Amino acid sequence: MNPFGDVLKAPSPNALRPLLGQTVLAVEDSRFACEAIRLVCLRSGARVRRADTISAARRHLAVYRPSVVLVDMGLPDGSGAELIAELAEASPRVAVLMGTSGDDAMADAALAAGADGFLPKPIASITAFQAAILSHLPPEERPSGPRAILEDEIAPDTIAYHDDLAHALDALKEGEVAYVGQFLEGVARHAGDDVLVEQAQQLGLAPENDDLVLQTRGVIKARMGPRVAV
Question: Tens digits of per-residue pLDDT, 67-121?
Fold first, then answer.
């Protein structure tokens, strides 16, 4: 008999924390986007880990069994659809498998690969995020009764945005121009930077254009500002 009664009983999901008990793996190469996911999960009661590539996700999954996996459709080492298809066929299967992208046109590819649903980026609504996850969880893992409507603004730290810009610069140096085009467009959309979105789209259409690559580097550096010695 447990001398502590119900003290050790795990908390149940409730109106304010409807995802209590859920563990989330975010397979996401953007730190800015992942910070938004972290904030939403924190408010929802879920624990979250991040993998920034398909290979890193596989290493996580070898030792860590999340209940929810969110997969960005464009990753440095391949298409997110590849990982989604792999996880959709795995046994045991994760309870919720979702594709994410700043490009809504990727929803069909995610669902065709076996995803339960699709989350468009930017992820800015706590309530919409919770509803998307809860709709695919077994009934016994959902909170009973109505949920609180949370309208808090999700505002990831700008340091994470600068980290993404630095990552884009490094990838350009390595010649990964096509990847930078799609990565930068998603990051810029999340940050609401329309000028950078347009620049990224142009780069994606003409990755062999050296002048456009140099121009993109300049646009990125202008947003990062001067480095300050500490």
Answer: 999 999 999 999 999 999 999 999 999 999 999 998 899 999 999 999 999 999 8
Backbone angles phi, psi at 51, to 5 degrees: -130, 130
Which amino acid appears at position 60 of this protein?
H
CA 83 to each of CA 68, 109, 186: distance values in angstroms, whole numbers, following the listed order: 14, 12, 19
- Could you give the dihedral angle defined by the CA atoms of residues 76, 188, 38 and 24, in that order, rounded to the nearest 10 degrees? -40
How many whole angstroms separate alpha carbon 128 and alpha carbon 28?
A: 19
| Rg of the chain over all Cα atoms, to the nearest angstrom | 19
pTM of the model: 0.86
Tell me whether strands 78-79 and 117-120 are parallel, antiparallel or unpaired: unpaired
Q: Read off the pLDDT of residues 131-161 as tens digits, 9 standing for 90 and up.
A: 999 999 988 888 776 666 666 667 778 899 9
Which bin fits 66, alpha (ψ -120 to 50), beta or left (φ > 0)? beta
Q: What is the 3-state secondary structure (H, E, C) of the chain?
A: CCCCCCCCCCCCCCCCCCCCCCEEEEECCCHHHHHHHHHHHHHHCCEEEEECCHHHHHHHHHHCCCCEEEEECEECCEEHHHHHHHHHHCCCCCCEEEEEECCHHHHHHHHHHCCCEEEECCCCCHHHHHHHHHCCCCHHHCCCCCCCCCCCCCCCCHHHHHHHHHHHHHHHHCCCHHHHHHHHHHHHHHHCCHHHHHHHHHHHHCCCCHHHHHHHHHHHHHHHCCCCCC
Q: Biggest alpha carbon distance in the chain?
A: 73
